[in-house]
Design brief:
Elements (H helix, E strand, L loop, with lengths): L5 E4 L6 H9 L5 E4 L10 H4 L9 E4 L2 E4 L1 H11 L14 H27 L8 H21 L12 H12 L10 H11 L2 H10 L17
Parallel strand pairs: 1-2
Antiparallel strand pairs: 1-3, 3-4
Helix pairs in contact: 1-3, 1-6, 1-8, 4-5, 4-6
The structure holds glutathione.
Glutathione binds next to loops.
Length: about 220
């Protein structure tokens, strides 16, 4: 079996979840880097591994996997010794599954905001109505997440892959949402960032350049 571990990756994109969990497991992957919106993402190197041409895809154990939650779950199942998954019958199994899915409910709203604020090419402009609606929906998911945090981490039983799924969202959300009212989320995010593996992954990433500004307000209606 090949022992190559290669992550198809956009720095500070959703593949960060995988880079971080790999670091939690002491694995440093080779990185195949992409930039959103470029042709390389639609070429066979990625398209043959991830059918929508999206990151992450992970080459590991002689196979390739796409979709961040599937990758994390695979890593947990094949490396059970770390205890980062929650298996059928285990305490928190249902909350764990819910959190993996919920992370993408939230991330799809962030993606809509990214599309509006970052990726429209002039003369196209962000739609104030669409941005406002998505921002409100993002706020609702953040309030929901705040109510889900059970202690130090998301699950009462401790750190899990669900924290890496949702933790990435807490990197991205503040570019669109004033986090001041979310004291519990801010404290949770600080605990996640304090983990040595998070810091190791962040060090591999370097400073984020995905967002050009610190904050993107809802545009004024014309
Ligand atoms: N549900 C997928 C979403 C993957 C995804 O959309 N990744 C974004 C980057 S964060 C991407 O590759 N976008 C490329 C594009 O929109 O063309 C996952 O969690 O892996």
């Amino acid at each position: 079996m090949s022992d190559v571990v290669r992550l198809h990756h956009v720095p500070w994109g959703r593949s960060f979840r995988v880079l971080w969990l790999l670091q939690e497991m002491g694995i440093t992957p080779e990185l195949e880097l992409y930039e959103i919106g470029t042709r390389k993402m639609q070429e066979p190197g990625l398209k043959d591994r991830s059918p929508a041409g999206r990151i992450p895809a992970l080459e590991i154990d002689g196979r390739t996997i796409f979709e961040s939650s599937a990758i994390l779950q695979y890593l947990c199942e094949t490396r059970r010794e770390f205890g980062f998954g929650r298996e059928p019958g285990q305490t928190d199994r249902v909350a764990y599954l819910e959190a993996l899915g919920f992370a993408e409910t939230m991330a799809s709203l962030i993606e809509q905001l990214n599309l509006n604020h970052l990726f429209l090419r002039p003369p196209a402009k962000p739609s104030p109505a669409v941005v406002k609606l998505n921002t409100l929906r993002l706020k609702g998911t953040l309030a929901g997440l705040e109510g889900m945090i059970a202690g130090e981490y998301l699950l009462p039983s401790g750190f899990s892959a669900a924290d890496t799924m949702l933790g990435f969202n807490l990197f991205a959300a503040p570019f669109y949402m004033d986090m001041e009212p979310f004291a519990e989320l801010r404290a949770y995010w600080a605990r996640l960032q304090a983990r040595p593996a998070f810091q190791a992954a962040a060090e591999i990433e370097g400073p984020q350049t995905f967002y050009a500004k610190d904050f993107y307000p809802v545009p004024e209606a014309e």
